[in-house]
From TrEMBL:
This is Organic cation transporter-like protein 2. GO terms for molecular function: transmembrane transporter activity. Residues 28-419 form the Major facilitator superfamily (MFS) profile domain. InterPro entries: MFS (IPR011701), MFS_dom (IPR020846), MFS_trans_sf (IPR036259), Tet-R_TetA/multi-R_MdtG-like (IPR001958).
Amino acid sequence: STMNAKTSSAGEEEASGMSNETLGEAKRRQVIRVAYVIAALDLTFLFMQMGLMPYLAKSLGVDSVGFGYLQTIFGVLQLVGGYIFGRFADQFGARAALILSCASGSIFFLLLSLSTNIPLLFLSRLPGVFMHGIPGAQKVITDVTTPSQRAGALGKLGFCFGVGIITGSAVGGVLSTKFGVYVPTYVGLVGSLINTLIAVIWIPSQTKPKSDHHVKEHSTSPSGSLFSIREILRLMRFPGVMEVFLIKVFAGFPIGLFMIMFSIISMDFFGLEAVESGYLMSYFGVLQMVVQGLVVGKLASRCSEMTLLRLSVFVFAGVGLGMALMRTVWHYCIIAAPLVFAFSMLATITDSILTKAVPSSDTGAMLGICASVQPLTRTVGPTIGGVLYKQFGVSSFGYLQLMVNLGLFVYLLKSKIPLEEMKS
């Protein structure tokens, strides 16, 4: 009887990829739900401040050039901090990383609420180096899910993104209009403190399987440093990692340039007022919730990840053609559906592939590298996007999107990327 019990226990552990002594199935589901809640709240507070920042900066006398510098500084901090945050999560655990992110958010909103002059406004950007709520939630989910569950579980984080963009934009606008521009910062401060408490209470101190503990010392750098170019290069040498990462970067780069210039395009090209632009952003949020909540997970459970990667790149190419031909905002509303699908699918599938291709003790660093893609685009994008828009017009973004993704699709059809799932 004892031998049978041991055999059964070993079988369950192997099937789930998780030591029952670490987390049971019910506890694992609970941890994932808590990670979703933290991510949704974090994004809500982030979009609240994004909506009020132009008005706060203008009230303090910051011109458009200065506001560009402010955004660039935040992008650079996020870019540098993404990998450092991932390495921190690998060395100290997903719970510590989430607490660090939420606590940094609290400091960020505190400084923002005290920003009564331009130097303090720029100083408030500094905590952004550790504000990585989505990568922190991704790290928790990656630790507690099996490889077959991972794509679907990561995909549902996009639903949290939709909740955040809709709720944050709406609440931030109402609060700043009715009660003053600083009120959303107070709400963000209190909310970030609550998020920190949720992470402390509900996220277990150890989310990794015990079988991974002895692997960690062989997988991470001996120096244990939080930033190491050698470590980044080591991760990129695993089979298929460099290829998939470059596809992730290049496939989404043209549409990233377009989104950076969207506030200007919506005014000049579409002729939208501020309220109408807000409605359009809410429409995007609803699409994101539907696609991530209902579509991505189901497709991930039925199709191979390479098939879905090819599909997302192909749809991106079609979106590029549509963008090159669009003339009105209604055209863009039609294009938005396949755009959100391709963007969500690409992000989810590449994150899933890349975290499986490296040792489990390096998933935080890999997620940090993945999280640096958008800050990189925000950093270099305004200059490139501005030149494209001024010299060639809106259609140039579409043609660039079409050419880049058609090339990537042909590459994916002809090449066989050597993906290998790492085992503990």
